[in-house]
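Researcher: Structure prediction, please.
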Amino acid sequence: MQMDFHYYATYCAAVIAGYTHDESLQIAYSDQFTDCCSRTLLHKIKGPLNAATTQLQLELMDARTDPTGLHDITRIWASFHFLPGDLGAIKEKYCGKRYLNKYRLICNTNGELLKDTVELARGRGTQAAGIAMHVLSDTWAHRYFAGTPTLAINNVNYYFYELVPEGDNYKEVQIKFNHDPGSVDDPEKGIYTNSLYQGNENSIMNLGHGRAGHFPDYSYARYKYLPAWGGYREILKDNPSDYYHAFCQMTFALRCLRTDEEFETDVYDFDAVKPWENEIKNLLGKRRIDASADWKALGEKLSGCEIEDFDIDKYQNEYADADEETRDDTFLGRYIIAALAQKSMVTNRIFTSGNPIAGVSIDFEKSGFRGIKDFQKLAKENGRRHLHD
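Model: Predicted structure follows.
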């Protein structure tokens, strides 16, 4: 997904769920910031580098793809953008374990990890809620791709067709992919930019939906393709429907975080969203690569307040200028602790499922702290939370 959904649509969902304008802005900001919190940014503000929730293209080009490097990449992308749907999934009978471990990282909706993600955010503030909403909505946009470099899972080929509305039916338009990073996606001509094919299984070009470019992130996209892992079985994706489900699920999840209601998977707050259903569905179906203006207009109609544009620099000086005693209580300080908690939780779930792709994880609450220094912040925060429970 892109800023139009991660920022403006999340704001709308938060307002419908009962949050104030300021709270909704903070949740939306934290959601979008998850696509921005790179090691480059954290280095700039002197934050803990292991709180990174994304990697810039230049960072990825320099990333190692040896086992240690792959652990690092997977911890970021599986935790925040490609949440695994079923860590115990079973493939074919004679599937090799190395391939099976990657298959089990395929992103999908309504898995156990989604419930863990939302419940982990409970009581941790608007920053954690925003991170959880980013993870939740990405399960809809990124389903069937995995947050680790793997040609065997993430590759797509020439059989990739958009289903473009035409009257009461749809026409099939074959997508033309190019590899020019400077080109702009052109929905009218069916031309989109994707990553360059690399036969190396662990090439960074095979991370997530890079082989399909940004196409899966567009809300209007209805398409069919043959995934590399699918045994030549056609997959059909209907983003307008999926994104509407994502929005209604976000609204339900945010309502749960605001109240004592327990979050359950595969539950959607259709009733609360009903008054704006037609407007949202029309918005989602428009064939353009940025729907920010329409989502912003809807959000301002819902709250009666002006929605400021996303500003990546907004909270950086507050964090960078704070001393060690107060830094964790700044906006980005609380975001960083929430990000460390999410990464720690997902990595631990992957590791304890018997899958080594995200590296070793130790449950410090049971075994004591024996991990990366950056996570001492999380251990300290968890200890403080237990004292207040």
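Model: The mean pLDDT is 92.
Researcher: Thanks, that helps.
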